[in-house]
Amino acid sequence: MNESNNYWNQLYESRNNQKPVYDLWLDKYAAILSTSNSIPIIDLGCGSGNNTLYLQERNYKVISCDFSKEALKKLDFFIDKPDTRLFDMKEGLPFEDQSAKIVIADLSLHYFRWLETVAIVAEIQRVLMKDGFLLLRVNSVKDTNYGAGQGTLVEENYYCKQGRFKRFFNKAQLDDLFQNWEFHYSSEYEMARYENTKVLWELALKKHL
Asked: How far apart are alpha carbons 9 and 70 in whole angstroms?
């Protein structure tokens, strides 16, 4: 845990303090986002704050969450008084039952062992209200530019390379992981936001239990 935490803190500390550049993947969910006008949206694993900024610019209240204190510090440079939470998802989510309408997890759920991932998804389900939504993106098994199939195999599609762990998903694994959710959107595609093309899965899932 400490090595991983140190890695992310050093990474974000080394970055500049400019506003992040976001892509517009959330545009298609405007109707879903509007259901949370009066309830803060949870940005789980917010990183540099891409989605936090996107939502804040559209007048949504956001709770920005991350494992790295240095990542959360960056938000102060482009968000006025950001509402932040520092915690490790593996230790649970510090929110009340059924307290959120929307949770966003953008490229933040693919760093864990399978059973840890299952537990985190269960925690998200606990926090969401009935008919709430989880909007997420995760690595695809086709994401060879960013480590798919590389390093030491720890579990199926889960690798350790230079001390860092990363998971890559196929459709069967996503169907298994979210078997108790209602799929509203599912797509595997290439994203061009980074230096190299990244292949990911994007899902919109509705809690109906």
From this structure: 5
* H runs (alpha helix) in 92-183: 114-127, 171-177
Report if pTM > 0.85: yes
Between the CA of residue 207 and those of 59, 97, 116, what are the distances in Å?
Answer: 24, 13, 20
For the stretch 75-115, pLDDT in tens is: 999 999 999 999 999 999 999 999 999 999 999 999 999 99
Q: How far apart are CA 159 and CA 64, in angstroms?
A: 27
Alpha helices of 39-137 — where are they, by DSSP H?
Answer: 50-57, 69-74, 114-127
Cα separation, 209 vs 204, in Å, equals 16
DSSP state of 137: E
CA 116 to chain centre: 15
* DSSP string over 73-129: HHGGGTSSS-EEEE--GGG---S-TT-EEEEEEES-SSSS-HHHHHHHHHHHHHHEE
Distance set, CA 59 to CA 19, 25, 65, 110, 191 (Å): 17, 17, 18, 29, 26
E strand or H helix that includes residue 7: helix 2-13
Indicate the DSSP class of residue 20: P
- pLDDT tens-place string over residues 109-137: 999 999 999 999 999 999 999 999 999 99
Q: Which residue carries 């195999």 as its tokens?
A: 153
